[in-house]
User: Fold DUF1877 domain-containing protein from Allokutzneria albata.
Amino acid sequence: MGMVLSFVRVTPKQLDQALEDPELAEELAEDEDAASCYLDKAWAGIQFLLDEAEVLVDIYEDGEALDEEATLFGWDPDQVAYAAEAFAEMPADKLAEFFDPKKMSEQEVYPQRHLWGADDRDYLVENYRQLAEFFKESTAKGAGLIRAFSF
Assistant:
């Protein structure tokens, strides 16, 4: 399976409760009926592109840890809105210009031991488009998010 990352939409009240109760945070993150954005293994490649483009959003590190293992992070509505705006200012086609498979392979951007190639560009761009749209929709709803990381 590997290391995968996803976001699940929650209400601000649910997020507040999840900050106090790691078991609830896990339940919310695993809710199959909740709106979500699954990035699979594209998350590290997307983060590479965001860093190269100097977009000040870290999809892995931003937010507040909800559990001791730091596999779940909460993003409050203000953080979601900030990221949504940053993504809107960096459309997918423009972000794709920062795709550098040689540099990504040299830096061992996850998945390590994977040699990035030209065909990976579309995979990252499509996942980024979904991510940007999900953050935009979440902002419109005034929602928070739970970032889930599994390995």
